[in-house]
Write a structure and sequence with these properties.
Structural class: alpha/beta
Helix content: 25-40%
Number of domains: 2
Bound molecules: adenosine-5'-diphosphate
Number of strands: 14
Radius of gyration: 22 Å
Largest sheet: 8 strands, mixed
Order of helices and strands: EEEEEHEEHHEHHHEEEHHHHHEHHHEEH
């Protein structure tokens, strides 16, 4: 079974073609700068194998349909493509950011499903429209292939009301569906399943805290395999400190900025999403640059690192309280997988909670899933590389093969 996984953004399409028998990636790539003067199409064939080779082309790409057609050209190139015809593709998995309260699981795409994703646009105005572009184009260009929507919010639909309700006038929930939804669900669900394998017990018996630290970051409390609380909220702005997003702030900040600096709401929104977080504190949003600056004595880089790790620790301890008993904590994504300093600082001083890191294991570099806790640690600490494309592909395969 060959599956195409599509993550369609406002000016980009990320894609991966997988052969599901061996879960092998046949091709992986990106269409960038759609709608700009010059676009870019990149493809890596058979990545991480001896046959790996890359191709890229620079040319204008007017819209998502043109971008997808160029991907098809590359995949079906008679000289060195890897499929003869688009009909070889047995199914398509689409990443969709916001499923609202309508979607609790991967869903076969029909006209009704498209309408429901449209209905949720007010909850994710920047994400759902380009996701829908990808779906429309793929339905047109691959009419024979069943298409599946995988929602970032779906895994968190198991949260109880006490975790998803905000203490606001209830009409806001009843009429506008203002509530916590949570995101990165595909990653948290994938990491939780891998955690269960490493613990050697069924996922349904596992209590976990999964810590996804990338450009966007979130933490999830998982009870008996189900999400019961998560740090991202109605939008992907709440919670942890992120690359350019602030995470938790006092909601009265908006009024202060408006009254004292004359800022308009769209400016405030842009500032909180794009100019805050690590970047806001120290001007850099890549942890590798921040570590270099810290080593050079940059005080605000040190503040940025400290605020990030302190917030992680606060959330972690609150999720330990939510769960009571925890089998494992798992770090994932760019920072979680690669940054031993952030992991150590985020767990510092938690010995009394049964959390003890093995310093050497924490610092050892590896790209595979591993345990980094000391023997004495009651709660296991894992690093588990996330793989959202594979998670989407597995769910797509499960759904279309019934
Ligand atoms: P996204 O949320 O965009 O998918 P990633 O999960 O790829 O992001 O994470 C990107 C971030 O991971 C970078 O901004 C950087 O801070 C961090 N990162 C990546 N590699 C390393 C590394 N080797 N050491 C420390 N941090 C890293």
């Amino acid at each position: 079974m060959k599956l195409l996984i599509i993550n369609s953004g406002s000016s980009s399409i990320k894609y991966q073609l997988l052969a599901m028998e061996k879960e092998a990636v046949l091709a992986s790539g990106l269409v960038e700068r759609i709608g700009e003067a010059m676009g870019l199409i990149k493809c890596t064939f058979y990545p991480d194998t001896p046959e790996e080779h890359k191709k890229s082309r620079e040319e204008p790409i007017a819209n998502h349909k043109e971008g997808m057609l160029k991907v098809i050209d590359l995949l079906c190139d008679p000289k060195d493509g890897i499929i003869a015809d688009t009909r070889e593709i047995n199914g398509i998995g689409h990443r969709v950011v916001h499923g609202g309260e309508d979607f609790h699981q991967p869903t076969l795409i029909t006209n009704e499903v498209v309408a429901a994703i449209e209905k949720n646009i007010p909850l994710a105005p920047l994400h759902n429209p380009p996701n829908l572009d990808g779906i429309r184009v793929a339905r047109e260009l691959f009419p024979q292939a069943p298409q599946v929507a995988i929602f970032d919010t779906a895994f968190h639909q198991s949260m109880p009301a006490r975790a998803f309700l905000y203490a606001l006038p209830r009409e806001l929930y009843e009429k506008q569906r203002v509530r916590r939804y949570g995101f990165h669900g595909t990653s948290h669900a994938y990491v939780a399943a891998e955690c269960a394998k490493m613990l050697g017990k069924p996922l349904d018996d596992c209590n976990l805290v999964t810590v996804h630290l990338g450009n966007g970051s979130s933490m999830t409390a998982i009870e008996n395999g189900k999400s019961v609380d998560t740090s991202l909220g109605m939008t992907p702005l709440e919670g942890l400190v992120m690359g350019t997003r602030c995470g938790d702030v006092d909601p009265a900040l908006h009024l202060f900025l408006q009254q004292n600096l004359g800022m308009e709401l769209p400016d405030i929104d842009r500032m909180l999403n794009k100019e805050s977080g690590l970047k806001g504190l120290c001007g850099m949003n890549d942890l590798r640059d921040i570590h270099k600056a810290v080593a050079g004595g940059d005080q605000w880089a040190q503040h940025a690192l400290s605020v990030l790790c302190y917030r992680n620790r606060k959330y972690l301890a609150s999720f330990l309280a939510v769960l009571g008993q925890v089998d494992a904590i798992a770090f994932t994504a760019g920072i979680g997988e690669n940054d031993p300093v952030v992991r150590a600082e985020s767990l510092r001083g938690l010995h009394n909670f049964g959390i003890v890191l093995d310093q050497q294991l924490n610092e050892a570099r590896s790209r595979t899933a591993r345990c980094i806790s000391a023997e004495a640690s009651k709660i296991k600490i894992f690093v588990i590389p996330t793989n959202e494309e594979l998670a989407i592909a597995r769910q797509t395969a499960r759904l279309i093969s019934g």
